[in-house]
Amino acid sequence: MLSILTELVSGVCQESLRPAVVELVTTRGYKGEAPDDSRGDIIEIPLPPWTEKDGETMDIKRRRLLFQSRKRGMLENCILLSLFAKQYLNTMNEPQLRQYDRLINEPSNDWDIYYWATEAQPVPDVYAGEIMDLLKEFTKNKDQEQRLDAPNLEYLDKGSQ
């Protein structure tokens, strides 16, 4: 009798802990690197859809993209994208800034960006273009620069003087 009661309570508790989010259908989400969901306990974490920020001046957009290039979900992209932004962000025109914005903000997994930049995986058509080509070339590091950390922000003060 006790075992039946324990099973019943544990089953009810587990079901009540299961988030209601499981029923949402999203176009963006992250499930992690789990190969399968044999236990039925992995949920997809829904992410808000990426939308382009309208009405932003180019200066504000550059500043936002610089911050977002530096503050990534993984150190590899933090270093890669912040150095890339330091070198190219101030020379990008409006369409290039939009491409870069979409590239670093729409994919839900930072590893995807890293694999595309290092050419370990093919770039989806939606992200292929001038900025991705520039990032792939930058990632090759043909000058063999030492890239161990994100750049200091001192270069920003020099640009505003």
TrEMBL record:
Compartment(s): Mitochondrion matrix
Matches recorded under Pfam families: Sdh5
Listed GO biological process terms: mitochondrial electron transport, succinate to ubiquinone; mitochondrial respiratory chain complex II assembly; negative regulation of canonical Wnt signaling pathway; negative regulation of epithelial to mesenchymal transition; tricarboxylic acid cycle
Keywords: Chaperone, Mitochondrion
Record SUPFAM superfamilies: YgfY-like
Record-linked InterPro entries: SDH (IPR005631), SDH_sf (IPR036714), SDHAF2 (IPR028882)
Domain of life the protein comes from: Eukaryota
Cellular component, GO, one term: mitochondrial matrix
Main localization of the protein described in the UniProt heading: mitochondrion
Family: Belongs to the SDHAF2 family.
Subunit and partners: Interacts with SDHA within the SDH catalytic dimer.
General function of this protein: Plays an essential role in the assembly of succinate dehydrogenase (SDH), an enzyme complex (also referred to as respiratory complex II) that is a component of both the tricarboxylic acid (TCA) cycle and the mitochondrial electron transport chain, and which couples the oxidation of succinate to fumarate with the reduction of ubiquinone (coenzyme Q) to ubiquinol. Required for flavinylation (covalent attachment of FAD) of the flavoprotein subunit SDHA of the SDH catalytic dimer.
UniProt-recorded name of the protein: Succinate dehydrogenase assembly factor 2, mitochondrial
